Amino acid sequence: MITLDSVSKRYSGKFGSIDALIDVSLEVEHADIFGIVGFSGAGKSTLIRMVNRLENPDSGTVTVDGQDVTSMRRKELLESRRNVGMVFQQFNLLETKTVFRNVAMPLILAGRSRAEIARRVDEVLEIVELSDKREARISQLSGGQKQRVGIARALATEPDILLCDEATSALDPKTTESILQLLKRINQTMGVTILLITHQMHVVQRICNKVAVMEGGRVVEQGTVTEVFGNPQSPTTQEFVQTVINDQIPEAIADLVREDDRNYRIYRLRYVGATRTNAFLPQLSRADGLEVNILAATVEQLENTVVGVFHLQLVGSDAAITHGEQLIDAAGVVKEPVQL
Ligand SMILES: Nc1ncnc2c1ncn2[C@@H]1O[C@H](COP(=O)(O)OP(=O)(O)OP(=O)(O)O)[C@@H](O)[C@H]1O
User: Fold this and answer.
1) For 39, phi and psi rounded to 5 degrees?
2) What is the Cα–Cα distance from 294 to 284, expressed in whole angstroms?
3) What is the pLDDT of residue 271?
């Protein structure tokens, strides 16, 4: 549906040049909610702006619905843009105009009739649950309501694709959650493909099925949310995943363990899948001569599954600990030794 193939972009200015995108390739499929995550300056905005050609790549191709965006003429580009709605962090609304007027704007620009505009605006206002604010001015709305107007405006031309540029970053946690649920509903009920950029990993966790992690203009990791969260490879990805799956041993507990002069080993265990949760812990706790201490544990819902991370201290004779390790392995749980 959206394909970036070896896309690179360099900005040059008075103080030298910067590689905003370096050889970026990714594929967003129909009905994905695809999240691009990265720290400030990673290249996320540059990437998303390539999709509706607010930026041109220096090399590589950007394809939307099988059409090469980079080689489109003006008329084709305008048509393509109607199929790609955009939602912004700062809403970009006309503050002194009404909700109706703001949502109608893309339809007016597309030359639709008055009757059609009225019908479509009412439809999208119902989708974003703002029908009662039709005649209110933007300046009278809360941040969450403004973003609903932004989403309604983006949906007005019935696009297949929605681009969201940090759409919830200016909102409080409760409002963020309601906007994320709205985006999910739009994706599920209308089949709209969503490409979003964010620096908040919990946004990805809440609604995305796929994710790409960017750093210094490159995509350093990508895959399904479960793959990337379940087994993050690069240090940057690990740092992001840490913000939603906190798997650190609390320092106060680590201090206690350091004082423990018995024979022990510590393992970090990781599993993906809801059925695994209880498979190995009861067996371990019943094993002869083995004491099992949970030093840290976290279980998080991702897409339709869970990722769990446990830190266990196995205390006992070498033979008892080895038996414990075998039980963990037999349960299919990935384990890594940890030194405190
Ligand atoms: N028009 C421009 N001219 C010069 N440099 C630019 C321009 N736009 C972006 N850059 C630079 O390109 C790099 C990538 O910027 P970009 O805005 O894509 O990153 P980002 O990940 O979206 O960051 P943020 O989360 O802060 O918006 C940055 O170093 C930025 O300073």
Assistant:
1) -75, 170
2) 11
3) 81
